[in-house]
Amino acid sequence: MSSALNRRQFLTGSMALAAGAAAGPLLAACGGGDSGNVTEINALLITGGDRYPAYWEKVTSAFTERTGITVKYDLLQFTPLTSKEITLAAARSAQYDVYSTHTAQIGAFFPHFEPLNNYFDPADLADFFPVAITYMTNPANGELAAIPRNMDARTQYYRRDLYEAAGVQPATTWEELVAVGQELTGDGRFGLVLPGQGDPAQRQFADFLWQAGGEWLDQNNNVTFNSDAGVEALTFYRDLVQTHRITPSDVVTYQWNENSAGFTNGTCAAVFDWPGAYATFGDPSLSTVSDAFATAPLPAHKTGISCAISHGLAINKYSRKKDAAAEFIKFTVTPEALVDQYTEFKNYPSRMSTADKVIADAQGMEKQWLSDLRTTIENGKEWPKVPGFDKVSTVVQTAVQNALSNQMSPKAALDAAAEESTRILQQAGALR
Amino acid sequence: MAIYEDTLPAAPPARRSRGRPQWLTGYTLAAPALLLMLVIFLYPLGHSFVMSFFRWDLNSVESPFVGLGNYTDLFTGSSFPQTLRNQVVFTVASLLIEVVGGMAIAVLLNSKLRGLRPARTLLLIPPMVAPAVVGLNFRWLFNEQYGLIDAVLVRLGLPAIPWLSDPGWALISVIIANAWQNTPLLVLLFLAGLQAIPREPLEAAAVDGASAWRTFWSIVLPLMRPVVVIALMIRIIDLFRTFDVIWLMTQGGPGNASNLLTVEAYKLAFQSVDFGHAAAVSYVALVLSLIVLALLYGIPRLTARRAATWQS
Q1: Does some domain include residue B113?
Q2: Which of A82, A416, A427 has the CB atom closest to B78's CB atom?
Q3: Per-residue pLDDT tens for A79-96?
Q4: Which chain A residues contact residue B270 at CB under 8 A?
Q5: Is the pTM of this model over 0.80?
Q6: Which domains does chain A have, with CATH numbers?
Q7: H helices of A292-361, where?
């Protein structure tokens, strides 16, 4: 008998191999379940710089050491991470057991994340900032979709040296923001930098909207962002760029990276940025102003409200290893883990007790900054988490850009966006 | 011939499967490939077509059938009409720049001018660059604060141009970036076509004293028509699916000033998590490009048929 592989043998072998490959996951799925003997989970985690891979390696190794469960993980930046999670959720994929997520996008994922209420003790949840828990909870059923890892709220970072030279103080009101900005604009420098594109533009508009006393929706989910307060907010936003000209003229193309870069490269004297920027601005290898910046709370208008959002971790609803996944996400939000995260990235702790400890241990400018941020977070808000609001966000982002680039008046832009948003919310069944 | 036939050995009788018709054997052999095609090509195409008739949001548990609702929403919405206009402007302007520019450069390179050989090699570079890299490069070149192009304009005493932040310039900027990458491809196609043109009619035109322009218009261009049509088809297909360059340069903004159908579909799917409307936009783009291609393919054939009828 010949030992050479003939065509029939090849085809038979191939078919057997293909059938085996197809049946493997199916059998695993049938026989799976989270019976407590899981030895490996998969996680899709966020990265945002050179130090993140080492950080996640440290966290996952420590978790394995403690539980015996290995965490295989992939790292992605925020935008591709969200796109991938959208695709995986739409496909009801069980590829990952744990997802990194964020308050801003969580509304889309409510039906696809496992409720965490049964995995966390209510007393333990009470230690987290209420605003973080509120906006990571599905308002339709009260289910907690993700656990917050770190808080995102913005600070006014300014050039101490320039402000001192000009004899001005950081702005505390909208009027002062314009006056100080005008004082510091000139000779190729701008008094302020703002984002003006995509989600960051909506985030900036949201802060101005709340500060002007406005809201996105009323109690029945009717659109209210085109109220007088909304028009005042968008008019102020546009005027900073087009009338007062205290920002670079092309901020309509800026997202977070360009916003931060305007400050670190010394072009702009002030910026509203996230807690993580504190570490970046202070790092001489990343910033030309590392020894010349200081912080202050954001300027207020009729209110001092601005956004308070958070990064978090969630369990994939289609995971077959939910208990093990829950162990991992609990491990990442212990007080020790949050302190470590703060030390590594200046990420603001999501637990109030940990925030207090970090504030107590800090000194000087850092202590004041952390303390101011705590106030901002306690008073902070987020845009609504109702069905259809992701699409409303896209419509609003376009409206903000239309106003910032003088294609439409703020009122016309907001009215057009409100009309379309009402239709979207009606279709999504969100209007009461 | 007959001698050969006589001396050749008789061909063996065609081997037939026992009772199995030959066509069935053919289909059986082709079945795996056909099946693969169905799975990887037709299924997603059909699935997204079906999806375009459903309200399919990621954050909704139910996906009700809405008929043509997604399509009517698009045409009555605030952004889609402008997006459609942008797509038409982008497609027509890009085709004009790329075809006219490509033909001009190809004619120049086809001439006997010395020193043009390196240019042919350099032309290979832009089409080889990834569109994402082109988008990022042009985003920096057109940057108003640090960009090279505005710096040169200012140095020349000209006003800086708000390339990406001005609604009037944003679409022009992405057309320029796109043309930079794709015109060389047409140059190479046209150059190949020009070099395949027979010498005789050109020599006859020269003997008759025809000017260079007259020769180009009356001889070269008609002979190049098949190449031009193929080039147009390739580019139209490509222009209707251009995404990377636009997304990286403007994200379709400011507002919707440079929004194209692909960008709109991406925003709907991955920002609005609204797959039903995103699928509808994709099908509008597909139908539009098919209509343009049908016109491009059909009009010359129709003209030729009418001419033949008229002559007879």
Answers
A1: yes
A2: A416
A3: 999 999 999 999 999 999
A4: 82-83, 86
A5: yes
A6: 40-145+308-379 (3.40.190.10), 153-307+383-427 (3.40.190.10)
A7: 322-332, 335-345, 352-361
